[in-house]
Amino acid sequence: MTLIATPLARTLMMASAFIALSACSKKAPEELPPAPVETARPAETAPVATTPTGPVKGSQEDFLASVAADKIYFDTDKYDVDAQDQDVLRSQAQWLAANPAAKVTVEGHADERGTRDYNLALGERRANAAKNYLASLGVDPARITTISYGKERPAALGSDEAAWAQNRRAVTVTVQ
Amino acid sequence: MIRFASFLTLVLLAFAAPAAAQLSVDVTDDSGSASLKIAVPALPTSQSVSTPAGTTDELGVKIAQVIADDLRNSGLFAPTGPEGTRTIAMTEVMAPNYPSWGGYEALVQGFVRSAGGESDITVGCYLYDIALTTELDRKGYVVAPRDWRRAAHKCADAIYARLSGESPFFDSRIAYIAESGSKERRVKRLAIMDSDGANHRFITNGQAIALSPRFSPDYGSLLYVSYVQDRVRIFVYDIGTGKQRLVTESTNPTFAPRWSPDGRSILFSMAIAGNTDIYRVPAGGGVPVRLTSSPGIDVGGSYSPDGSKIVFESDRSGSQQIYVMNADGSGQQRISHGGGRYATPEWSPRGDLIAFTKMAGDFNIAVMTPDGGNERVLTRGWQDEAPTWSPNGRVLQFFRTSQGSSGVAQVWQVDLTGVNERRIPTPLSGSDPAWGPLLP
């Protein structure tokens, strides 16, 4: 995508950046919306582009552009990190090494074919499996927080194996 | 909030001699036709006066309707409410015209009396056996006008208890999660309602995900999980003040909250470095005690009615199964052996059964004895989940989720025969129902 900003596009971009920042605010009084980061597109979290040629170093956009993938997938009721997952997490660890000020949250998810409380526990296992692997590659665990969404935030909406496979995931998101 | 303390039960007269009663219904009859014909005409009033909930005339019709609905929804009765029965005079209430009720086996009559305005209303409730031409029971209730439904539920409870021999359950409340919005960003709000879906009230506004509520045994507060500030934590919400506090201070996620039967302790599940175990903490706060320590997921938990044991789920064997332990965590023993995965065990308030989610292909609601025997599947949905017991241990509510991209969840109810199944009306979709005890 291009970030060459026409006046209109620039206005829209500022508006979405504002929304994204509001959603991440920790100062809201009573209740805050759940982490919206998994749906945030690069343009939404990028500050108004200072250079039209690439993402800001250390940003979510930079992270997505740099790593092999932001998520890894799991088998039913499993939380082991396989060789493919290790490649993905290695690329994330490299980015974290190159951006020592960056922090991330790993979100653990489960498919809908499990009971609610168990799926919360399963999402915790998955998020921690990813965190532990990143830590084993030298990332300071203090830079990694985890949260489980259980089956509450599916990425794919179908009720079939293909959808469930996409939903059994751990997603790494930069904390801005 | 309903003023529970103002609710007085006046027992006007002792029961009629039980030996004379031949009329009864059987909660274990699964023929689906165990329907006792019972008439519930509108409750007359000696003088119609205005109350904040309507005139006493209007209340007499509405109370009879709620009584008839309660009895019908129990699956044991075929009631005819005020719309299908003739109007009765005040003089008939205690002197029924038996020959005029020939098509029925039982008759409920009563009255509504009020001094008007905000003053309490008195509701009389009489049960008659038509064939034997005898009175079986009479009760009187004094409630604030806005609590008229409670008087109706109390009357229905008295009839149900008298004719089934079971404990009552209609006069109770449900906490649940009201759901709206698309499947990938569902809005989930804590809400409460009466056992029949009336007097519905939202507690949270939906900005943060709310999950798995539980009424305290005295109905004074609610436990639930909130994602507020992007963390997974259990809060205690005080229904009277609207204030809430954390069950325990921890940087680790806490979820699956449960009360002990006496309300003094809270069970919760906490994940530390990815491993979830079950803990107990005093309800007023204090140092949590860890009850499980397996490397598997140990989660949930439900006390036996006497508080001596806890049934919970664990995947320590490789898949979700149900275990029982002593309340101090000792003596952990697996009780589910039927094949498939087992989850969300809930101990019946009667102590005789454990309800759970059985996952073998589809998800179904099932029950078994506390030693794991006599497993019976009660429902046949694609995904029926998380049963919760009625106060008398004879009825279960659960939630049923539909397949596909809509994935809508609704609260359902089924009795122990598995025959009488119905959806509980809620303003939005609903999940995670949790039935409280009989109201104090």
Description:
The complex is a heterodimer of chains A (176) and B (440). With 176 residues, chain A is of the alpha+beta class. Chain A has helices at 7-24, 42-45, 60-66, 83-98, 116-136, 161-167, and strands at residues 71-73, 103-109, 144-150, 169-175. Chain A has a single domain (7-175), classed as OmpA-like domain (60s Ribosomal Protein L30, Chain: A). Chain A has six helices and four strands; from the N terminus they run αααβαβαβαβ. In chain A, β2 (103-109), α5 and β3 form a beta-alpha-beta unit. The relative contact order of chain A is 0.17. Residues 1-47 of chain A have low confidence and may be disordered. Chain B folds into two domains: 4-164, TolB, N-terminal domain (Rossmann fold, 3-Layer(aba) Sandwich); 172-438, 6 Propeller (Neuraminidase), CATH 2.120.10.30. Chain B is built from two helices and 32 strands. Chain B has helices at 56-73, 148-164, and strands spanning 8-10, 36-39, 50-51, 54-55, 77-80, 106-114, 121-129, 134-143, 172-180, 187-194, 201-202, 210-215, 221-226, 233-238, 244-246, 254-259, 265-272, 275-282, 289-290, 298-303, 309-314, 321-326, 333-334, 341-347, 354-360, 362-368, 376-377, 383-389, 395-401, 409-415, 421-423, 429-438. Chain B has a six-stranded mixed beta sheet, with helices on one face. Chain B has a four-stranded antiparallel beta sheet with strand order 11-10-9-32, with no helix packed on it. Chain B has a four-stranded antiparallel beta sheet with strand order 12-13-14-15, with no helix packed on it. In chain B, α1 (56-73) packs across α2 (148-164). The chains are: A alpha+beta (176), B mainly beta (440). At the A-B interface, α5 and β3 of A face β28 of B. Chain B: One of its GO terms (cellular component) is periplasmic space. Chain B: The Tol-Pal system is composed of five core proteins: the inner membrane proteins TolA, TolQ and TolR, the periplasmic protein TolB and the outer membrane protein Pal. They form a network linking the inner and outer membranes and the peptidoglycan layer.
